[in-house]
Design brief:
The complex is a heterodimer of chains A (about 300) and B (about 500).
Chain A: H1 2-35, H2 52-59, H3 63-95, H4 98-113, H5 116-126, H6 134-141, H7 149-152, H8 154-179, H9 183-191, H10 196-207, H11 209-224, H12 228-233, H13 246-255, H14 264-288, H15 291-295
Helix pairs in contact in A: 1-14, 3-4, 3-8, 3-11, 4-8, 8-11, 9-10, 11-14, 13-14
Chain B: H1 2-29, H2 39-66, E1 72-81, H3 89-107, E2 112-121, H4 127-139, E3 146-150, H5 154-159, H6 167-172, H7 183-187, E4 190-191, E5 194-195, E6 198-201, E7 207-210, H8 211-216, H9 221-232, H10 238-250, E8 256-259, H11 269-274, E9 280-281, E10 286-290, H12 291-307, H13 320-329, E11 333-337, H14 340-348, H15 354-360, E12 361-364, E13 377-379, E14 382-386, H16 388-392, H17 396-406, H18 409-419, H19 426-429, H20 432-436, H21 438-443, E15 450-452, H22 459-475, H23 480-495, E16 499-502
Parallel strand pairs in B: 1-2, 1-3, 8-11, 10-16, 13-15
Antiparallel strand pairs in B: 3-14, 4-5, 6-14, 7-11, 7-12, 9-10
The chains are: A mainly alpha (about 300), B alpha/beta (about 500).
């Protein structure tokens, strides 16, 4: 009886989150899939066309390119910035004077709190091909030829633009995790003669293993569906789908048409694929990082 | 226990007393049934009567407040777009027309007033967002009564019942003004044997050229003056343009030999037309892919960027001000593939004065692709439509009357002159203001060489595919063969039977 009560109260506590997931994920995902089976446009008519959108997707020659772009974008931004740079910044700022560390972290938050259009415009100005643009001014004063950055290095710019925004999330989580490491461990290591590097490598990093895994998983999914800055900076160009990722392609198909007539149905079909990839990645990370262990009840009881 | 029994007894007593009192009151208050009308019916009529009484009181009060003889007001909503700010008369003319109409009504002692509300959209709202706003407003039941749009939208709007056919209205008012509209413009308003819109303006897209740069290249004034005529006669081809532009770039007189628009649009389709390409087959109503013309067009753009280096590979990822208006007006580009409205925009924006414009800027048709072909330009007439929702609101008649009033040689001439668009009425061409505008007079002949954008519900797909491959060619992402194959396969898969492929 007591067990039954416990179980039912567990479900009761789960109701709010289940309701939120149902309303904001499951229902929209089903709707997206259903719209993907139509050729809906601005008239919002449910005209069923079966799997034609998915067939068209497979037939499109440039889908492979867009798919590869997505993988490249997600994993490069993730490893260099959202996890890599976040870790470097939090470790460095953790090991210097606290006030200076906090100030540096605050600066890293600036891209995140700047309105995205303003932030993107700043990058557009900085990377313009004229000699007077910021990047070219730095570049030419170092003795190099000026570059048309967005044309020659579109990926570099796209990854930097996203990376500088993405770093802050991991940085905050990692810093919090580092601060929660009991100071005794660090003192013990220092007494044993550990260098800063050894301290980081053998004490701190293993202790913030779970936050690193969480940020990796979370940011992969968030990068997979993010396109806002790419849209603002290169709009998928400069050439033929040069920096077009799946999420942006879905947006372009569903909402962008100079002539006015867009393809909601096709855009939704693309979004369905994104949902499937997202779910698959979640399962993969769950297994790979053995996240179940994170959720296990502690082996010792602490009162 | 005993206490509980007492309470129950008391409750029963109260209940019985209550029922008796209720029955007595009910007996006395019960209305006497009248004739055969049931009690229910009687109550309903009574309630209705009360409601009507209230309404009459309300209306009397409103009338008293409004004062004797206050007119009934009818509001007509109009949406129009520039997106260039000088085209504001597309909307403003309605306000002027409403004012005129109200004066007439007042003089005739008719108790009616027409009020115009709505919006004129300018950049940063581009065509795309404007159209999006319309479709969403329509879905929400808040569509304007009069909607200005590009003629190529008519097919989609008509197919999906967004707008109403105007043939009956036009016939009714034919002798008032519509007889005077330049006939080719009506072609742009027709779809499936019905007329769905009234022309608002027309434009041509000239190839502007900097006279000062040509002078530096050693051209005499006569040669410069003759240049547009030579282009018209087909003596100058697109390849010659590449040569001239290259010379100017090589000699360091300009940074860019030729500039064109920086975002998706229709201007660059002129190069395809210049090579004999067709966009639309009027007989079948299908869109057309002329193989030889597309290959030559893509080849021309490839050579222009990568061999002659007269178009920058960054042109399509540029910025309107920095990569179009500035190089055009500051003499950093020799040829400018623009539109007649750009003249208006440059002067209104203060980028060039009227004098400077005439000193440094020349304009011609876009030259023929090859010897033996004709030079071209492209027009995209804008049109006024009446929405289905205006009709539902019972406002279609008044809306059309307003459209008839703005289709006035004088009012339309103001718009034409302010924004450098072309006349739509024969009488407008001889309007005293219009005749004084040298530029508009000068470019009028170009209408003989013009083509319209296809009016097809899937035109968006064609337009998007062209933009994607052209951008790929300019940035060097694709060579001519790859671009050609991609364009053809993309159009074939997207349009299917709606695309005619010809050699």
């Amino acid at each position: 009886m007591a067990k039954f009560k416990l179980k039912s109260s567990i479900y009761l506590f789960l109701v709010p989150s289940l309701a939120i997931i149902t309303v904001f994920f499951i229902i929209p995902a089903i709707l997206t899939f259903l719209i993907g089976l139509t050729d809906m446009d601005w008239t919002f008519k449910w005209h069923w066309i079966g799997l034609k959108n998915f067939e068209a997707m497979i037939k499109e020659k440039w889908m492979t390119k867009i798919f590869n772009n997505t993988l490249f974008y997600v994993f490069t931004t993730l490893s260099f910035f959202n996890v890599g740079m976040a870790l470097i910044v939090s470790l460095l700022t953790h090991h210097i004077h606290e006030k200076i560390g906090t100030a540096i972290r605050a600066i890293w938050l600036l891209p995140r709190i700047t309105p995205s259009t303003v932030y993107a415009l700043l990058w557009l100005w900085a990377s313009r091909p004229e000699e007077t643009s910021l990047f070219n001014w730095i570049f030419t004063s170092l003795g190099y030829e000026p570059k048309a950055w967005l044309l020659e290095q579109p990926w570099l710019i796209v990854i930097l633009v996203n990376g500088f925004v993405g770093t802050s999330f991991g940085m905050i989580i990692f810093t919090a995790a580092l601060k929660s490491i009991p100071v005794d461990y660090l003192r013990a290591a220092i007494v044993d003669g550990a260098s800063t590097w050894q301290l980081i490598r053998h004490v701190e990093l293993p202790l913030i293993r779970w936050p690193i895994m969480f940020v990796t998983a979370y940011q992969t999914l968030s990068l997979l569906t993010s396109y806002e800055y790419i849209l603002l900076v290169t709009d998928g160009g400069p050439g033929f789908y040069t920096t077009e990722v799946l999420a942006l392609y879905s947006y372009h198909q569903a909402f962008k048409a100079y002539g006015g007539v867009t393809r909601f149905g096709y855009g939704a079909a693309l979004a369905t694929i994104l949902v499937i990839i997202g779910l698959a990645m979640s399962v993969l990370y769950w297994k790979m990082f053995k996240m179940k262990e994170l959720m296990l009840e502690p082996r010792i009881e602490v009162d | 226990m005993r206490r509980r029994g007492q309470i129950s007894t008391m409750a029963i007593v109260f209940l019985i007393v209550g029922i008796i009192i209720g029955a007595v009151i009910g007996y006395f208050l019960k209305p006497t049934p009248v004739g055969v009308v049931s009690e229910e019916e009687y109550n309903r009529l009574l309630a209705e009567n009360e409601q009507l009484k209230k309404k009459v009181e309300e209306l009397t009060k409103q009338l008293e407040e409004a004062g004797p003889g206050a007119p009934t007001e009818i509001t007509i909503t109009v949406w129009a777009i520039g997106p260039d700010p000088p085209s504001e008369y597309r909307y403003k003319n309605f306000e002027i027309a409403a004012e005129r109409l109200n004066k007439m009504l007042e003089t005739m002692g008719i108790n009616l007033k027409v009020k115009v509300t709505g919006e004129f959209f300018v950049r940063p709202v581009e065509w795309e967002e404007y159209r999006k706003k319309f479709y969403l407003a329509f879905k929400a039941g808040e569509a304007p009564d009069i909607y200005l749009t590009g003629h190529e939208d008519i097919a989609y709007l008509a197919e999906n019942n967004y707008i109403i056919p105007l043939d009956d209205y036009i016939e009714e008012y034919w002798d008032t003004v519509y007889y005077d509209i330049i006939p080719t413009l009506w072609d742009a308003c027709r779809y499936k044997e019905k007329t769905w819109a009234v022309p608002q303006d027309a434009e041509v897209r000239p190839l502007y050229f900097r006279k000062d740069v040509l002078r530096k290249l050693g051209w005499s004034e006569e040669e410069i003056a003759e240049f547009p005529e030579k282009i018209e006669r087909g003596e100058v081809t697109l390849d010659d343009i590449l040569e001239i532009a290259k010379e100017a770039v090589d000699k360091g007189y300009v940074e860019r030999g030729l500039i064109h628009r920086v975002k998706e649009g229709y201007d660059y389709l002129q190069f395809y037309l210049a090579y004999g390409g067709r966009l639309w087959d009027p007989a079948t109503g299908k869109m057309v892919f002329t193989k030889s013309a597309w290959r030559k067009t893509l080849d021309w753009f490839y050579r222009a960027v990568h061999e002659y280096k007269v178009i920058l590979p960054t042109q399509f990822s540029g910025d309107w001000d920095k990569d179009f208006h500035e190089p055009a007006t500051k003499g950093k580009a020799l040829f400018i593939s623009g539109g007649s409205w750009h003249k208006g925009e440059w002067i209104k924006k203060g980028l060039l004065s009227e004098d400077e414009f005439w000193k440094v800027m020349g304009y011609a048709l876009h030259p023929a692709g090859e010897p033996g072909r004709k030079p071209v330009t492209l027009s995209h007439p804008l049109v006024y439509t009446i929405t289905a929702q205006a009709s539902e609101r019972g406002k279609a008649d008044i809306a059309f009357m307003l459209i008839t009033l703005v289709t006035d040689p004088h009012l339309n001439a103001i718009h034409a002159i302010e924004s450098a668009h072309l006349a739509i009425l024969y009488s407008e061409i001889s309007d005293s203001r219009y005749t004084q505008d040298k530029f508009l007079q000068d470019v009028a002949y170009m209408l003989d060489y013009t083509t319209f954008i296809p009016s097809h519900p899937q035109w968006s797909e064609y337009s998007r595919a062209v933009f994607n491959v052209l951008r790929a060619v300019e940035t060097g992402d694709m060579n001519v063969d790859q671009a050609y194959d991609t364009l053809l396969s993309q159009l074939q898969s997207a349009l299917g039977d709606e695309l005619l492929v010809e050699d």
